[in-house]
Amino acid sequence: MASHDHEASVEAVRSYFDAFGEGEWERLAESPAGRVSFELHRRLLARFVRPGMRVLEVGAGPGRFTVELAALGARVVVTDLSPVQLELNAAHVAEAGAEQAVEARALADVCDLNAYGTAEFDAAVAYGGPISYAFDRAGDAVGELLRVVAPGGPVLASVMSTLGAYRQFLPGVVGLMRSYGPDATDRILHTGDLRETQPPGSGQHLCRMFRHAELVALVHAQGGRVLDALASNWGSLADPEALAELEADPALWARFLDNEEECCREPGALDGGTHLLVALARYAVR
Ligand SMILES: C[S@@+](CC[C@H](N)C(=O)[O-])C[C@H]1O[C@@H](n2cnc3c(N)ncnc32)[C@H](O)[C@@H]1O
Prior knowledge:
The protein has a single domain (6-282), classed as Rossmann fold (3-Layer(aba) Sandwich). It has twelve helices and seven strands. It has helices at 6-20, 23-26, 32-48, 64-71, 83-95, 138-147, 162-168, 170-180, 182-191, 212-221, 240-247, 250-264, and strands at 54-57, 75-80, 102-107, 123-126, 155-160, 224-232, 275-282. α4 (64-71) links the parallel β1 and β2 (75-80). The chain starts with 5 loop residues before the first helix and ends with a strand. 46% of the residues are buried. The structure holds S-adenosylmethionine.
């Protein structure tokens, strides 16, 4: 497979999210499955973030989880690679009346958080794929997230899932097989790297997806351990019509969300979502 220049990849991701703009705010709200994904991510925050915690949010985007962190009583340093996403973050967080929780906003690349000190934060959040946008430097990204958090403090992150995406986006996989040949889609299945078919400069969405076991190995290699892991999502990806029917009934929806969270933690479901959601901590001060 062709090797890709890291800086060109990062620049392509920045351009993609600058252009995607407000679409990123809609991503977790526009469909029932998106709302399930939002709820699973929100619940993981609620499980680990306590009032008064100082949190570094990396790849914060337009701020859905900045608002949630504020609601949990955290103080947040908001960062992103995309200047447009940072501006949207300021607007949406102000609109939600949560700006008092934001200590600062800054441009930052997850691979290089050297503006922040070792163990400076009580927790770090990197939801929606910052580690997936680090490509070959995903290990550096995990290492930096673990470094800035006090020992034992959680890093809460989600990455794109290779197997879940293969299943969920099968029509797209068939299209890629036709355009690029089955060897190319086999390579994506084995490396998770979409840059062969969505190269930097094409304006398409590019990222590196992971299998759960690969992500765990990456975390261990960086001196971290996994505190919690779940798919996002699982049962809710199967049938949009059935999901819409469930959502229309508040009692059934509440029950379904609890069941979904339980199913998503099963080992047999971990690789089945479009995303892998994890809570990490480092073993000791490095
Ligand atoms: C899919 S959005 C997720 C936004 C938000 N965290 C959420 O879950 O709703 C991914 C965000 O990560 C940012 N991002 C991409 N590559 C990054 C990198 N290398 N370092 C930091 N942020 C990055 C993008 O600009 C974008 O705002």
